[in-house]
Design goal:
The protein is an alpha+beta fold. The chain has one domain: paralog of FGE (formylglycine-generating enzyme), CATH 3.90.1580.10. Helix content is 16%, strand content 14%.
């Protein structure tokens, strides 16, 4: 399959090639609870945010979603390792790059790898994201920072460097699927409506961090007041009102919806209440026209109120479908209807 690559990935690979030559109304809770999942009751809520900088998350509008099951936590390295071992799945980051996608780049530079965050040595312009991202050959979910890294001690950390198709393949193996954007926000709010954060209106109730985000001067200095400078083991922070962990911070999470900045305008104008919205039929990002992108939600450990505060429940993210990074992962959901989901628990459920 030909990869349609984001501008960021193209630039990072090209930069590396030059620098290193020659070298993506509530229903009752069903009786049988799938292992490792939490019931998210259906109902109406206000979707989006009034944050002035998040124009693609406006207008705030009424949405109804039916009840569904959601993984209590993000999919972990241990979870993904079982999937990869059983299926032989090779992630996008582990596959060779096609020279047709990188005209002018020397063939010896087209090695498998992924995009890795590295704090720059000094202050940089926040407008220059290339100052803290680089394409690292060999980086993948197995080696998150590149060939000199591994998963030792990180079995319960969220898997990263997964492209959208990798996440979708895992969910299919597990008898589940990725959440819609509306389902994710319904779950993230945990029954609280029109609150700034997943847990309420106060950033640190009782002075305690509620999510794994960035504290300090981004991107050079993370004071780690929450206890982490990178990803955290899943469920390191308190659950929200539905019993779900890490729907804010830690890693961005893939959704099924194609990304368009005008999605909410269309949903809000179509009816008083959008029911189970599934997103647009195609993708368009004016910043990178022609690059297919899916919605990402929840923010990550790199989110900072001084740079990117999109870990708030109404915030939206986006990512090229064929690219993963050190701060993108996922979790799965399952429909309540027996007609739309396996009646028995999947192998992944039994093993979690």
């Amino acid at each position: 399959m030909t990869r349609v690559l984001s501008g960021l990935l193209l630039v990072l690979i090209a930069v590396r090639a030059i620098a290193a030559e020659p070298v993506g109304a509530a229903k009752p809770v069903p009786a049988a609870t799938p292992l490792g999942m939490v019931w998210v009751p259906g109902g109406e809520f206000w979707m989006g945010t009034e944050e002035p900088s998040m124009t693609d998350a406006r207008p705030v509008h009424r949405v109804h979603v039916d009840g569904f099951w959601m993984d209590r936590t993000e999919v972990t390295n241990d979870d993904f390792a079982r999937f990869a071992k059983e299926t032989g799945h090779v992630t996008v980051a582990e596959r060779p790059l096609d020279p047709k996608d990188f005209p002018g780049v020397p063939p010896e530079a087209l090695v498998p790898g992924s995009i890795v965050f590295a704090p720059p040595p000094g202050d940089v312009s926040l407008a220059n994201h290339l100052a803290w991202w680089s394409y690292v050959p060999g980086a993948s979910w197995r080696q998150p920072e590149g060939p000199k890294s591994d998963l030792t001690g990180r079995g319960r950390h969220p898997v990263v460097h997964v492209a959208w198709e990798d996440a979708a393949a895992y969910c299919n193996w597990a008898g589940k699927r990725l959440p819609t954007e509306a389902e994710f926000e319904r779950a993230a709010r945990g029954g609280l409506d029109r609150k700034k954060y997943d847990w309420g209106d106060e950033l640190r109730p009782g002075g305690k961090p509620q999510a794994n985000t960035w504290q300090g001067r981004f991107p050079t200095q993370n004071s780690a007041e929450d206890g982490f400078t990178g990803t955290a083991p899943v469920a390191s922070f308190p659950p929200n009102g539905f019993g779900l962990h890490d729907l804010a911070g830690n890693v961005w999470e893939w959704c099924t919806d194609w990304y368009r900045p005008d999605t909410y305008e269309k949903d809000a104008g179509a009816s008083d209440v959008a029911r189970n919205p599934r997103g647009p039929a195609d993708s368009f990002d004016p910043a990178e026209p022609g690059i297919p992108k899916r919605v990402q939600r929840g923010g990550s450990y790199l989110c900072s109120d001084s740079y990117c505060s999109r870990y708030v429940p109404g915030g939206r993210g986006k990512g090229a479908t064929d690219s993963g990074t050190t701060h993108v992962g996922f979790r799965c959901v399952r429909d309540a209807s027996p007609a739309l989901a396996p009646a028995a628990e999947s192998r992944a459920d039994h093993e979690r």
